[in-house]
Amino acid sequence: MKSTAGKLHTRFNRFAGYLAACCATLHLGCASTQTSTATPTTIDALQQISNWERVGAGVWSTTIGEMDGELRYTELAAERPRLEALKRLGEAEFPFDPDEIRYEILPDGRLMVRIPLAPDEKIYGFGLQLDRLDHTQRVMTLKVDHWSQGGGETHAPVPFYVSSKGYGVFFDTARYLKVYAATGNRKDATQREPEFDRNPVNEEERGKWNAQPRGDAVEVSLLSPGLEVVIFAGETPLEVVQRYNLYSGGGTLPPLWGLGFWHRMHAHADAEDVYAELAEFKEQGIPLDVLGLEPGWMTRSYPCTFEWQTLRFPDPKGFTQSLLDDGIHLNLWINPYISQKGSLHEPLYPLSGSHTVWHGIVPDFQVPEARAIFTDHFREEHFGFGVSGYKADEVDGYDRWLWPDHATFPSGTSAEAMRQTYGMQLQKALYTDLFRSENRRSYNLVRATSGAASAYPFVLYSDSYDHEEYITGISAASLGGILWTPEIRRAGNAREWLNRMQTVCFSHMAMLNAWVSGAKPWSFPEVTDSVREVIELRMRLLPYFYTAFADYHFEGIPPIRAMVLEDGDFRIRAEVEAGELDGETNPYEVDRVFEKNDQFMFGPDMLVAPFYGPRYATAREVALPTGDWYDFHSGAFVGNGEIIEVDAETLGDRIPLFVRGGATIPMLKDAANNAKAVSGASLVLRHYGEGEGFVRIYEDDATTFDYLSGEYRFREVRIREDGSFEETIQGAGPALYGDIEAVEKMTRGQR
Amino acid sequence: MKSTAGKLHTRFNRFAGYLAACCATLHLGCASTQTSTATPTTIDALQQISNWERVGAGVWSTTIGEMDGELRYTELAAERPRLEALKRLGEAEFPFDPDEIRYEILPDGRLMVRIPLAPDEKIYGFGLQLDRLDHTQRVMTLKVDHWSQGGGETHAPVPFYVSSKGYGVFFDTARYLKVYAATGNRKDATQREPEFDRNPVNEEERGKWNAQPRGDAVEVSLLSPGLEVVIFAGETPLEVVQRYNLYSGGGTLPPLWGLGFWHRMHAHADAEDVYAELAEFKEQGIPLDVLGLEPGWMTRSYPCTFEWQTLRFPDPKGFTQSLLDDGIHLNLWINPYISQKGSLHEPLYPLSGSHTVWHGIVPDFQVPEARAIFTDHFREEHFGFGVSGYKADEVDGYDRWLWPDHATFPSGTSAEAMRQTYGMQLQKALYTDLFRSENRRSYNLVRATSGAASAYPFVLYSDSYDHEEYITGISAASLGGILWTPEIRRAGNAREWLNRMQTVCFSHMAMLNAWVSGAKPWSFPEVTDSVREVIELRMRLLPYFYTAFADYHFEGIPPIRAMVLEDGDFRIRAEVEAGELDGETNPYEVDRVFEKNDQFMFGPDMLVAPFYGPRYATAREVALPTGDWYDFHSGAFVGNGEIIEVDAETLGDRIPLFVRGGATIPMLKDAANNAKAVSGASLVLRHYGEGEGFVRIYEDDATTFDYLSGEYRFREVRIREDGSFEETIQGAGPALYGDIEAVEKMTRGQR
Questions:
Q1: How many domains would you assign to chain B?
Q2: Paired strand residues for A334
């Protein structure tokens, strides 16, 4: 691999004007021209950082100030950094002049770090921000809370951003972080816009004033004596994200059943209700892998006992096993706050924080003993006899529900750090002490997570429910090592029901969570066939999607990706034809990083553009990157680097899905009812476009952690022009699917 | 005066059940029953406060931790505490067991103070919160910012609250303050609700669960090594507020002209436009005291030069004087951020903060030299030759406009403290160095203020514009020593125009600020007569309202007051008749503190209930406290302790106004065009209800600070049953009005 920074410099030399503008602040070490003043507030007076340490290929870290007693997100990561995988991505040059990143420790205990920005640079990321991906010129408070109004507070405010100039920055601290992105100009900044009068006498001078003049840096501040900053290089924005994920332990690899269809029961449902519901799923022919129980499975909830309510479930063990026999995995709702009436209250009382949540004590999972008491109970009462995992609710906010910022905890962890990491601490407890220790993979839900979380098999969800935001969340998640489900709770009409169902089937977790509204997949009979079809399509795509997750695990490539992560050839032909682009393919040129958040990439080669909202319920635009694109369903050629219109009628009420020319999509020949039926099932390969094809299909035992010790294999298939193929096996792990029964050539219509 | 605390104890003894519930936490020092645990997080382990110091009659202060380098709001107060006036209110007992208020200094630099609450206690206040007055069970961040969504961020987040149990608490620190009011239960709290299951099996047990169980304290936290807490006693909520205002230096007393009608010109207006506009006011017969110029009066704005744009105003001095000759006072818009093109830039550059606002430098008014340079310029360029005052904009927020929390300032003041006090620092500079030093009173606008601000002649305003919220603001202001104008900018129809005009004429500043929309008082011709009538009514009420401001200054009584500040007899007759109230008159009993925020008291005896919004545009309810109430306009008896309906048609499109039985309202016989015409003008007294009457009318020179050295007088008038009267003069100050020409007996209809 070539060095990123070196390549950037070369690119920059082509743009002389740009070079002049950015030289004082970014990448190049030419001397600053500002004059210093008498006050201690100049940029020159800020502290320099001399201790950047290479912590992996293309990854550098520095500790500013004193981190004793401060919690880093990486300390809570599920797995160690995947240094070998980083090495395969290649070494790279540090993307800054090391002198350019400055900091200051203020008398009132705030710590500030300043990272320069070029005049046209954009930054993307900061975790699960549901409104957009580009956060340039925003002020954000990164704090774990319910998503509501933007401003940075959300279920997963990951303090990591990707720059359009080709690097990433991760603030590795469990503190509330205030981010001033290209806003808040210093008075001695050398790179700034001219000052304009807002009310000039001459009319022609009016309108130039800017309410928010662009700043020349990202400045972040936090209340802490120390901060660890991690910088990631990358040839492309995707490579930056890969390095972040690999540094975080790699992406999670769910059990295969986790990628099937999920459904949740009413909070007051009992075992008989569950059996009746399962019978109805069978009758309706709707696949189902996971059945979720809401709080009523416990003797008390909000706060919780985690003890079975035997009036509803008289035989938890037998009940769980009977579902497993049918291929159905049981998921249990929890929140971590413990009722006075539960057996965990007494042992955990001294190991809990000063404040309660709904009167429940708040166990301090940073105390190993507390974690052990908690997970031993879970092993004994549910996971040990076959319960598959949990939905960990209420670890996100609001302030009026959770502990205050001044709460204290036995481990000495600050209330702020507990707030930022409580979801992650709970994940760590369940993952390390249950899933890993029992060597049984799990797939779960959690309401909040943090930085360095990519290796956790937990999917985020929200109450906010706006369909457009939920689609944006799919893209946003891919920039921060997190997973997201735009779960379905209800719909105003059949069209919305189908559109939401189609969206969720192309997300990290295809879950119906309609227990409050009582809706079932077949509640809108006029679209039930289409609903069944998209769920079956998800099931048929399991070999493709599971392989995408393997790439997440081994290479850090998110299985679903924002369009801004697509590679440098991602331009719109119309723009090229209009002469607005010059034919260069520099992925870091801002105007060519393509931010469109209502479509996204599913696996390596599929582009998904769901219908949504009242406005785009049955027709919408899709922006196709350069390259040939084919309709997934029909194989028709649809375009190349252009914006096309799609409508539901033409698609036969199917979701708009497009495949890159030359790509091969491995699918099950028939939709499995659940993952149990996948074992040994026949495959078909769909090859789109002209020429030869190649595809890798990941296989392992689908349920244990044995893949971590090499127990997996890739089936590599080369497809010839005539549709015949040759299969090679890489690795010695177990087989998962059956034979490839056919190659379907999906190429219709004119290029 | 009797001791408050003693009286409270007596009252509490009547309520044995209540007493048991609150004894462990409030007012009584009986022993706590909780058992301590092994962790250092118990209530018992919190620090006690041993150094409560009496700092005035009924006022106590304590310093927790270390306040070196921390800014107190009281350091920025306009005037010294009015200790003599406090003494006249009487001594009182400390309203708590001193052992009950606890604190903790946390390892991460947070300081927490815990003030216990009784189970039924409510708290009101926290400054200009525009949504409601009762903030019990809220979590708020008190931070200066634009008002938007609640949550505590607003133009004047005064850290002062009044308890329904009869005391007030002021956190005297210029820090962001996080307030957890009766939320966030400690696990060892002795006073708490039982725990309920959210999903019980038995249907009859459902619905008891509470999403936000009530906490037993106000807990506040802040980032600071120290905090000063001030406690105020009071026989009534109003007395608590009076003590707070007197401790803050007393209320401001505006120049009489400040209470007249205000109008603002378009930002690009020139001198000729002003003359034309003034001529139109005359022609339309609309009173006018103050003419405001928006930013275009300067050579550059956003940031500013504070230098006259002579292309628009070729002769600033002559222009200002010509307006004064006509009785019109000139008010100039500013923001404090300084343009590179202004003469102040060079001298103030080294005395400004690290960051800019719209590229303007931010002078550090905590540096005396900076303040002197700034105000010398203002004296020279405007105030010195007759400009009357300023509209100080943009000192409130947003984060994306102002300096970041990590900005630094030459005085060493933290960015946080600068944010919390910048509006107040600017007020201090203008008040002390200009208005007081020139011995010329002023009345001004400011976009943000803080604690201990009652003596400043600055009125707050906002961009939020919701009429109902603007009316709530009138009440909210009265709880925090601040002034507020629900200024008018535009209206969707004539009815809204009139309703907003009526509201603003019963606020602290009657201002039309419609320069953007271009609307004039006569823009909706169908209501121009009604608009003129209410402006004229405000002018006729000047003797009444100016006296109310004198009471604000001398006694701390807000001139306009929330209904929750009305005294203990404030009950609704209907409730009494329904047996819901027992006839007791305890102002501290929660259910009898009457929170209704869409009506308020104007001066001592007038109740104002404006029409507002689409829903209450022409008809609404008015809740009358006990006592006889009369329609201001007709003198008709309207009710006593009951809810009545009023409608616009019956009132002849006048604002609903009610006067307490027995009250006398001093008025000008004729509406003055402006305050210049008030001097020597004849008075009439309107006496409402049966029996004899008494009224005090305050007089001074109306423009200087000589009243501070005793140059004022009160005219005390006793009215006999037959309408004849006797007048006595108290004090040796100058006369202001002419003779009392008539007493009007305003009593019609049956009681």
A1: 2
A2: A392
